[in-house]
Task: inverse folding
């Protein structure tokens, strides 16, 4: 959990309207970027107390502060959903996936007894916004999801938000089937390579199968400095070196 918290934290601290980093991250003196030692003290205290894998503060394409091991790759768990979401933006813009397609239209089902007709009416958009209304066990779900999962059939698709690994895992299946691409190879070619990620390769992802579902999870292993580039990409509306990699919409 500490690893995940650290990665989420630095992504949130990437500021809007960022200059892009070069091939290598460059560090600067915090004072020259307008940061006082007192302002950075809580960040240092957090790093000393929680000992996360890595913590980075990025401003205008340079590293203002860094703690831990920003080159070390760790499992990023729920961050995978943001990574796949970016690939969906590309696939939707290219016309390979429609946000309004239903699971019935896409041929998505589940292990016996399968999805109900109501559940098959959920759309890709519903899954992306965690509003499918499908409350079934899923690979890589947490005990909290299991404990708080609503009763099956209690909400129609699109009517209720629930952080649901079933939705996210099914999105992985849909992406692979509709594009014909491996998620990790696709991410490496379409995003990691163009923005200059230094540590990630397609071998850093895996499909986590489970006997309880047809849809595997797809955990990634990534470094803090690579995810910081992803944060800069989003801060700049999906653009990198004047090329629109992920549609701004």
Result:
């Amino acid at each position: 959990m500490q690893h995940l918290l650290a990665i989420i934290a630095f992504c949130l601290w990437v500021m809007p309207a960022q200059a892009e980093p070069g091939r290598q991250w460059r560090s600067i003196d915090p004072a020259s970027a307008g940061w006082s030692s007192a302002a950075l003290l809580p960040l240092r205290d957090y790093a000393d107390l929680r000992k996360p894998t890595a913590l980075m503060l990025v401003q205008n394409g340079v590293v203002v502060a860094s703690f831990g091991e920003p080159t070390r790759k760790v499992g990023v768990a729920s961050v995978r959903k943001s990574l796949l979401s970016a690939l969906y933006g590309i696939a939707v813009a290219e016309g390979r996936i429609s946000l309004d397609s239903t699971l019935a239209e896409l041929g998505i089902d589940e292990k016996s007894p399968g999805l109900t007709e109501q559940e098959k009416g959920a759309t890709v958009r519903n899954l992306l916004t965690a509003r499918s209304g499908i409350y079934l066990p899923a690979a890589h779900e947490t005990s909290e999801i299991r404990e708080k999962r609503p009763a099956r059939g209690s909400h129609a698709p699109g009517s209720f938000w629930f952080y649901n690994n079933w939705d996210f895992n099914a999105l992985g299946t849909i992406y692979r089937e509709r594009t014909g691409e491996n998620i990790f190879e696709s991410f490496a070619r379409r995003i990691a390579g163009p923005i200059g990620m230094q540590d990630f390769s397609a071998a850093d992802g895996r499909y986590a199968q489970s006997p309880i579902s047809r849809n595997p999870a797809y955990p990634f292993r990534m470094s803090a400095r690579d995810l910081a580039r992803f944060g800069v990409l989003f801060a700049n509306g999906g653009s990198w070196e004047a090329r629109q990699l992920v549609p701004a919409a």
About this structure: The radius of gyration is 19 Å. The longest strand covers residues 62-68.
